[in-house]
Write a structure and sequence with these properties.
With 267 residues, the protein is α/β, with parallel strands linked by helices. 46% of the residues lie in helices and 14% in strands. It has helices at residues 3-11, 28-39, 51-64, 78-91, 116-143, 165-184, 206-210, 212-221, 230-241; strands at residues 19-23, 43-48, 68-72, 98-101, 147-152, 190-197, 252-255. It has a seven-stranded parallel beta sheet, sandwiched between helices. It binds NADP nicotinamide-adenine-dinucleotide phosphate.
Length: 267
Amino acid sequence: MGEGNTSSRSSKWSLKGMTALVTGGSKGIGYDIVEQLAELGATIHTCARNEAQLNECLHQWATKGYKVTGSVCDMTSRAQRQELITKVSSEFNGKLNILVNNVGTNIQKQTLDFTEEDFSFLINTNLESAFHISQLAHPLLKASDSASIVFISSIGGVASLNVGTIYSAAKGAINQLTKNLACEWAKDNIRTNCVAPGPIRTPLAEPFLQDEKLLNGFITRTPLGRIGEPEEVSSLVAFLCLPAASFITGQIICIDGGLTVNCLLIQ
Ligand SMILES: NC(=O)c1ccc[n+]([C@@H]2O[C@H](COP(=O)([O-])OP(=O)(O)OC[C@H]3O[C@@H](n4cnc5c(N)ncnc54)[C@H](OP(=O)(O)O)[C@@H]3O)[C@@H](O)[C@H]2O)c1
């Protein structure tokens, strides 16, 4: 193999020169996505609601030499989403290569116990915010000539789990949105994929991790016999953003130790 081939092959595994917006980067999976993309050479803008935690993260990343900026933004606010994109556009000269729609949260109740407010909050946080920020980011993504959106849904949007019906319905909608945008925006050189995690060790999952019965129920049904770590999700997200993944679009990839493909595990 010639030297030219080697260098073009290694550039497929780099995000050098690329810009990214990662929503919800101050904790959990989002935090690790920021680190992973930064390590591959991307320049990143992230957001969260808690300013002190966000500033602490920005400080840590600056110490590590990562190129990361951040904004305080509540992604459930339409006006704040607009402000966020205005900021990203001015920071990145109107061009964005990567949008990772990571923000999401859950309220775990039985269906009959959910209130109207629960419904609005969960649909807004998990679905509407990602839909609207994708609309707003579209001109920036298109202008970059080679762009990638990654949604973070959940295996709750793929199979029936006892994690709450509103969260699951919103995540199922994200899975479908992934397929539609992949087709609609392919002409604009925007690939769209989705990562659907099973249980991952993050602050959001903390109450679940404390519930021994529930946790063991998941672990015994998971072929790999454990829950996942944030860095196992972020490496898949990063892969989907790389030029190496240039022919992959419209896919929903479960990252769950095999839980969703297991019908009957006999050990
Ligand atoms: N952990 C799991 O087991 C698991 C499984 C399947 C899917 N997921 C999905 O993975 C994604 C990340 O989950 P995670 O477990 O890493 O959650 P997490 O530990 O709660 O972290 C969420 C991040 O998003 C930010 N955030 C939350 N709501 C926000 C809002 N309205 N506006 C702006 N930022 C907001 C949080 O910061 P602030 O609180 O400061 O805003 C934080 O940085 C979510 O979409 C979740 O549904 C997680």
